Fold each of these.
Amino acid sequence: MKVLKLNRSTLGDKMFESIREKLNSIYESNEISSHKLIAKYLIDCLDNDKTPTTKECSEVCFISESALTAFSKKYGYQGFREIAVRIKVERELYKPFKKDTKRVKTTNVRELVNKYFDQIDLQEDQLNKLVNKIKDANKVYLISSYEQEENVNLFSSELHFKNIEAYFTKQKRLEDMWIEKCEANDLSIFLVCGLDNQSLTRLYTLAKEQQKNIFIISSSSQSHKFKEENSIILQQECDMEIYLSIRSIVINYLFAKILSKL
């Protein structure tokens, strides 16, 4: 079997690039329908712990193998084989979240949730800083990872009930415009967790370069990407199946604390 060889510069450029995010962007864009079908097939491979093949993808998407090569090169890959390698690498990188992950010994959910609530409470000074920034802001822009969109959408609605002009959208293409239009007395809150954060790091860099008013809420595994003193860190147990559910509870606890102080 022929093995794909990636040079050092190629790996370096793509080391922190999430292929899931790129595929999500293609699937949600106005690209031609065949490209959306390919992206959907590849996303399904990621979700179902499968390695994509040109033969299966061609059959599922009703396209030729040469069309797969054209698709791959259009989005910056040497060929479909490189996409398959990138998917395998990303699955291995985030292996702790797979269903067959070994459970940690602690199974008392109440204890785990209380531990994470305590970690939020220990950051009371930062939480108060965020509350004051929201109070002082003319407009609040909420920018979220895919994983927490529903919770952030609810938080945005609850801010409106507090007569705070808050904005949230699932249309990622609008967020660049928000950063550009964000004024000195506006606030951009980034909620960063999960696997799909390449666009958020890019938007954060853009906002930082333009000296925008920023606050970061980040999982501990993502916090190293943001050198920001205005931040709240959500600690995490990477080897726990149930952590995704617990993180949602903890984030809503944080949001409830913020709302209670507004």
Amino acid sequence: MIQKKKTLTLIVITGLLLMLVLFTAGCTSQTTEPAKEISIGYVTWDCAISSTNVMKQVFEEAGYDVTLVAVDAGPLYQALAKGDVDFTTTAWLPYTHESYWETYGDQIAYVNENIPGAARIGLVVPSYVTINSIDELNSVADKFGNQIIGIEPGAGITSRTEQAIDEYGLDYTLVTSSSAGMAAELGSAISKNEWIVVTGWSPHWKFSRYDLKFLEDPKGVYGGAEDIVTLARLGLETDDPEAYGILSRFQWTTEDITSVMNDIAGGMSETDAAKAWVKAHPDTVTYWINGTTT
């Protein structure tokens, strides 16, 4: 009787061990899907902050872990060329970033124009300023304190403004700052009805908040209408066709990006503003992700 119990116990233990071995073998044979990751490079301009955060929400909805990389314009193009970031949604071509494209363009994938033909750069003044052209600036230099209020030294519009000062023979100093610093100076001057000239671009929320105008540019230093372009690192299309597909379908309008910028300028966080836009445009986001609206 004791021998039978020992035999039964041995059979049970053997069965349990066999089940454990089979279970373990089954677990080790399963493969885990690698995490989907994507990085977005951008310069901290209002338009770039808006589109970058919207695309962050879109890629997270598509199941990606998203890393945002904030850099100046020159380092952004360098990072794309080296493959250190996957893409950016705010290249301004063919004029604003012309020099960067000439240097790095053959090392970067041109994906598409996400806002075609709607962008513009130049010198901007409040509408109450009584001149209308850059070539009139010297005649009223004292009213502007002989200063043009600019943004970052590495920005394309900064180099264009330095060129404008030279070509028009302007008796002005370009005061470099930041996008936020320029906007603050503009708002302060308008509140006092003072004259101010800034490096400006559209789309930008300041045109919704203030009554502004571009000064005419008869020499064409700032170029004409241009595109806001999505650029990617070489190899992304092969490495991650899903991500590249999202980028190739990403197009929206000046009104879209301006609405996000206005929300942020009005005090909403970058993330909340992007989430609000994504929530309000489910069909568009679905199309970007899947290529369909259903």
Amino acid sequence: MSKKSLEQFFSRPQNLPQIPQVVKELIETFDDPDTDVRSVAKKIGMDAVITANTLKLANSARYGRSRQVATVNDAAVRLGLDVLRNMVLAAGLVDMYPSVPHFDLKGFWQQAFNVGELCRLLAGKAQCDSELGFTCGMLHNIGELIIHAAEPELAAELDSRVAAGEARAYAEHAVLGFTYAEVGAELANRWLFPEVIQLAIRNQRVPLLAEPFSQYAALVYMAAYLERQEEAGEDQPVDWPLQLAIKLKIDWTFARDAWLKVKEEGSAYSMLLGE
């Protein structure tokens, strides 16, 4: 199979997914310190589906209080801009592809949300922005989804090579000529996400080799590592990314507690998947 450049990949219109206008406008607010949460709520209110899903999340056990909120404006006041923005992003992205042949969409988003939750917890310990950490975690493997939706035959070849024991990054370079991390970063670039998010996605696999060092790429690496663990004992695992942990000031005990919390509680965002 011939290799394709990222430019060629995204030159096909069907390979660049469309997102709702309200999500596009919300992405623009990442770099705008003067964004008014009420004006954002007004924009959200123009999309009925996203409004419904945002209210569902705002009234969930994780974010809800004794009083249920009935409007996005009330939700905005309760949650604040950063949480509200992640809710709208999640609601818009989950609806981006109603289905993808031979791909477990529900499982994909469940993993993405869990990595996001782990990133949020780890970010607080590392003195990074927790909600930005969640955004990076939620988006970390968006490139994998795009590849499966846009190039199902190549994705099937990839999956079979990985199932046979080949390292995913090696298989991606062999089959595509680029990795899902590069696809995700380029998608984030084309959607005009801030550079900090683009770098987190692009450098998530090799955060120690990236220049400049991205704390958020390191957080994604560590969160994805934890999400893959089927169990977590009190003793630090032999493959624990110690250098990253030292850089982020995250010890194994804290990471294990974060893992336990997410394993036990899951993600409030799972309700977007019909759970």
Amino acid sequence: MVATAVLNHHQRAGALLHRLRRQQCDGWRLKCKPVCASTEIELSHWLQSVPWRGERPRAVLADHQTRGQGQRGRRWVAARGGVWISAALPWDSRSGHADMLGLMVAYALCDRLEQAGLPVQIKWPNDLLIDSRKLAGLLPRLVFRGGRLRMVRIGVGMNVANPVPAGAIALRDLLPPGCARREVWTVEVLRALERIQTLANRPELVRREIENRLWANQVKDPQSGEIWEIQGLAPNGALQLCQGARAASWTRWPHTNHDNLYNLV
């Protein structure tokens, strides 16, 4: 059984590489794992053992994760059938707006999904929803050395043909039979990631497109329970809110274990 599982994994990896070449998306250095604790951990180990020199982008892909990493250190089991990727990409130091990295990835992924006819919304800052159910989550990170942005790292988890918990949705629930294949959407995710350097030079486009896809008109402060009206995004991607004469700007979700995550004006 173990030998069969390994063989099936190698066959899937080979099919993925073939599809990447066909779609002229073969500039990546890839590692494909049948199972791992976390693609984020695997990518970190890879970057330590083979130091980053700003060459081709790298990505670790897994069939199955036993301890996937999410926002604020959340852990979950990522079952087979989904797209689980952690990527490292070079960043042109002349490009600004790296603080909007997560939103750039969210918009690029929305664009790929919308080409398949899917009505995607963005739950600021890092989740993609369809019918108010979570389809994908993002984990963006900036890596600096000596004050200089050295690379960007992006973790992507997308439900494709895997079982999902309550409150989530998978592409197999939304697309015709045969259109929700993991290798197809792995390539779509990689193509979206390739686009972020271009989007970094178009921050106003990203801001406008994200605003058009925001998931709600109101948001609840998880600390105070107050309801705020969503006004849109600031130039740096912060969520702009108001409550009567009061205004707020969130750079990320308020959390009881963190201070100074949002500013009141």
